[in-house]
Specification:
Length: 165
């Protein structure tokens, strides 16, 4: 059996709740054709891999659990971006994030898997389009910026909602 998987930073419940509370009203008012992810499923994708055997996903999980993210600090810029059919909260890119991304890519490659993303764009996934016919709203700068520290890197299985492996 194959699962669509991705590697992501995971946050404390308190940080997820903070993000949801700060941005849900803006999304409801400005992105009516989108739906906000449930708070439990807010995450910051590092790399999308796609359809993968569960055994390979579990091997990857063991590899990435050893990555040191103690220096990772995510600076939320406050910009809500339309990214394909998803809404994303922009994270300021920096050398530490690029280094972690490179390490994740190394684990993916070493595991014999292939990543799907063309380039790394640090963000927190906030929501998705309700329908393929949704109108595309403009990006919005809420000017709400703050820092959060991820608690870990996880491998998720993508279904109608995110599910940590």
């Amino acid at each position: 059996m194959l699962f669509r998987i991705y590697v992501s930073y995971d946050f404390t419940n308190e940080d997820k709740e903070k993000i949801s509370q700060l941005f849900s009203k803006t999304i409801e008012e400005n992105f009516s054709d989108y739906i906000l992810h449930e708070t439990d499923f807010l995450h910051s994708t590092i790399e999308f891999i796609g359809e993968t055997k569960i055994s390979k996903a579990l091997e990857l999980k063991k590899m990435i659990e050893n990555l040191d993210i103690s220096d990772v600090n995510l600076k939320i810029t406050g910009k809500i971006l339309r990214h394909n059919k998803y809404l994303a909260l922009e994270i300021e890119n920096n050398e530490i994030l690029q280094n972690i991304h490179s390490q994740v890519m190394g684990c993916i490659k070493k595991n014999g898997l292939v990543a799907k993303n063309k380039h790394y764009l640090p963000h927190i996934s906030l929501g998705k389009m309700l329908s393929e016919n949704a109108t595309l709203s403009e990006d919005i700068d809420t000017e709400i910026s703050f820092n959060i520290k991820p608690m870990l890197i996880a491998v998720y299985r993508s279904v109608d909602y995110a599910m940590k492996i």
